[in-house]
Amino acid sequence: MKHEWHQKVANYFEYVLNSLMIIIGVVIFGFLLREIYNLAHLLLTVEDMRSHFNQITDATLAVFLFFEFMSLVREYFIKDAHISMESFLYIGVTALIRAILVYHDQTMKTLLLALSIGILVVALTVYRYFREKGKQQKLPH
């Protein structure tokens, strides 16, 4: 009985957090629809795709980023308020690839972005290795 108020506070924060995640999900979904519309508009109205390559790739990768963020919101609710580190690493790699496609004419920036992608891929590999190792240790022999 002594710690009843702790549970009430925790329930309140969980309610607020879930409400905010729903709002964030709706906002991200709105941005996703807007980017899909912009991409469709670009693809249907641009006559010379080569001259608008940067705009098209930027819009395409923005759609993927918003889609991945929507997946994060979905994962939050499916996995009972838990989002895996792996998802964040994937989003980081996608965002950096987008940046490389947009800033491909700047050599040093491209090199640093490629190095960053390499670091994230190594981090993802290490994360998966230790996650699998942890699962194997939990299994009864």
Automatic annotation (TrEMBL):
One of its GO terms (cellular component) is plasma membrane. It is a multi-pass membrane protein. It is found in: Cell inner membrane. It comes from the Bacteria. The keyword rRNA processing does not apply. The keyword Membrane applies. Its main location: membrane. One of its GO terms (biological process) is cellular response to phosphate starvation. The chain crosses the membrane at residues 12-33, 53-73, 85-104, 110-130. It holds the Pfam family PsiE. Belongs to the PsiE family. This is Protein PsiE. The lineage of its organism: Bacteria, Bacillati, Bacillota, Bacilli, Lactobacillales.
